[in-house]
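Revision sheet: structure tokens.
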Amino acid sequence: MNTEMKKVILTLTLVLATAVSANAQLLYKISGNGLAKPSFIIGTYHLAPVSFTDSIPGLKEALDAAEQEYGELDMVDLMSAENTQKMQAAMMLPEGQTLDKLLTTEQMARVNGLLKTLMGVDMTNPMVAQQLGKMTPQALTLQMSLLMFIKKNPDFNPQESFDDYFQQVIAKAGKPVKGFETVDFQVDALLKGSPMDRQIENLMCMVDNQEWQEEMAEEIVNAFFSQDLKAIEAALDAKLNNSCDDTPEERDRLIYNRNANWLKMMPQIMKEKSTFFAVGAAHLVGEKGVLTGLKNAGFTVEPTPGPSPREGGS
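Predicted:
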């Protein structure tokens, strides 16, 4: 199962932690190494409620101080008619091809079993087959993971995006909002990066390991809402020790290569303007994570509003 897909699946259950550890943080200040003003970076969880921003120490001050925002994407650009169409097209199989032609009868039965659990209907229903049966296996995996999340969290509001919140605040203040990546890049990396046989394998891995996914979901959700990057890293690195685990090449493509690209861009971005960066928390953690990369480049990286022994220091 590739890393980006695992990240979505692992964050299916929205369970708030009861307390925030004093030694944990999602928001960091970046300073030193010739910067005239500090910048800031936050690790996000794409399905977190906007209300959770009230629990992040120093967030308002960081947003006020920043002169621009960088996300993985410019969300306004993402929602344009042209790019919405690109995303939808990338999620569909070639004309005339359907999922039941790619999967065996037995595999389709297993997929339908999970759909029945999540929706009460499956692709033996012509309307459901019309909607889902033309999706790529990768896109269906994403769709089913979202269905899992909604089933667990019926109050989830897809109109309130945690990532979009930061861009809205900055834009409302009349400051620029930009993205590290283009929609075309993300379509290629996240929707088209895996060959069809691997997409099918990932789909069946999700179908066949629902219980494990839900257990990992609770771990990573609690880690995020505890603002504990070490626990997030541990949950993302959990393995089934079979072909469902992401390969080194898949993790490079979806996480580490993107981190490296961002790290090349960030020094000049921060030199020009104090910047608030908002990227998925999985991109911050580990030896190839953005926090370590910034430290290795000579910047001081410390939690806001004060240092923490867990991830702080230069």
